[in-house]
């Protein structure tokens, strides 16, 4: 996974005031935890199986920041923002679905639909060169996912091949994943942040200017060039 950058700095209020309640029942009573699917700086994704039904899901274990002075873990407000956004963007064939949210003393666990086809990045690397029609098909689906977000005033802010997953092996249906950096930007709002993956960030990010839906479109242009 390529490194992401984000402006640091949070208030005490952001850190220690929960505004959402999550499922606090013992997670392992409900789900069998299986192999690791991926990891980031403060999160690990594992395949899990719902014990009651046998249905497979992906569980994203997000490590909570326990102390305001710590640099380890994710602050509460950022976790809650990701959950809020995921709950807002369900119902699209091209965006990952959030199923449930659990909380333990150390982690918040997002239960997501399982997409098992691998990253678009790995698919491109394996094939070395995509045909025009295949590349266009992927771009169209990514655009549909982005439109679904933008229609709801959500800007992803980390569009890249690693955050586009093939739904199944050998199937060319894709879904946008990883909303950890995403923002809800209402009309007229001014939001500035140093955020994203350096190779894909738009000029307004580097220049610390207002972010917008156009920020995602720049990143999609870079993805299209790669394809």
TrEMBL record:
Binding-site list for ATP:
64
Keyword entries, A-Z: ATP-binding, Kinase, Nucleotide-binding, Serine/threonine-protein kinase, Transferase
Q: Which SMART domains does the record match to this protein? A: S_TKc (SM00220)
GO terms, molecular function: ATP binding; protein serine/threonine kinase activity
SUPFAM superfamilies in the record: Protein kinase-like (PK-like) (SSF56112)
Q: What Pfam families does this protein's entry cite? A: Pkinase
- Show where the Protein kinase domain sits: 31-227
Q: Which family does it belong to?
A: Belongs to the protein kinase superfamily.
| Protein name in UniProt | Protein kinase domain-containing protein
Species whose genome carries this gene? Gnathostoma spinigerum
